[in-house]
Design a protein that fits this description.
This protein is mainly α. It has 2 domains: about 35 residues; about 80 residues, no CATH class. Keywords: Membrane, Transmembrane, Transmembrane helix.
């Protein structure tokens, strides 16, 4: 009986060590991100068609000294903030309807909606909350 207990003890200890090594490996992959998978985690809850339209190539050659306004409602800082979280500003609505304004106020709150409309950069959380309004 003692031999069986020793064998089981070694077996479960070995399984624990293997699990710990696998856990460390997954943590390493998440922190170092060699396969660039972090952007996939940021886009949960957002339709891929909102983030990018892969059905057509929208490559545009623009001289370095000229900037392109991708959305008339957004200033350049807001566009950069949205692009940094993986959102293409050109696919967002170009006019604010009363329904869209009401939905935005319901999702992010009246104070934050006012800040965004005055030029404050939207955060990733703001976009995730308001993404339902864009569908």
């Amino acid at each position: 009986m003692k031999i069986l207990l020793k064998i089981l003890n070694y077996f479960f200890t070995t399984l624990g060590v293997i699990f710990f090594i696998i856990l460390l490996f997954v943590l390493y992959l998440f922190v170092v991100d060699p396969f660039n998978i972090k952007p996939l985690f940021r886009s949960f809850g957002v339709s891929p068609s909102v983030i990018m339209d892969i059905s057509q190539d929208k490559t545009v050659n623009v001289p370095a000294d000229k900037t392109v306004d991708k959305n008339v409602l957004l200033n350049s800082e807001q566009e950069k903030a949205l692009e940094s979280i993986g959102v293409d500003p050109s696919v967002l609505p170009t006019e604010v309807t009363p329904e869209l304004e009401k939905c935005l106020i319901d999702k992010v709150g009246a104070k934050r909606a006012e800040e965004i409309s005055k030029g404050s950069e939207p955060t990733a959380m703001d976009f995730l909350k308001a993404s339902a309004c864009l569908r």
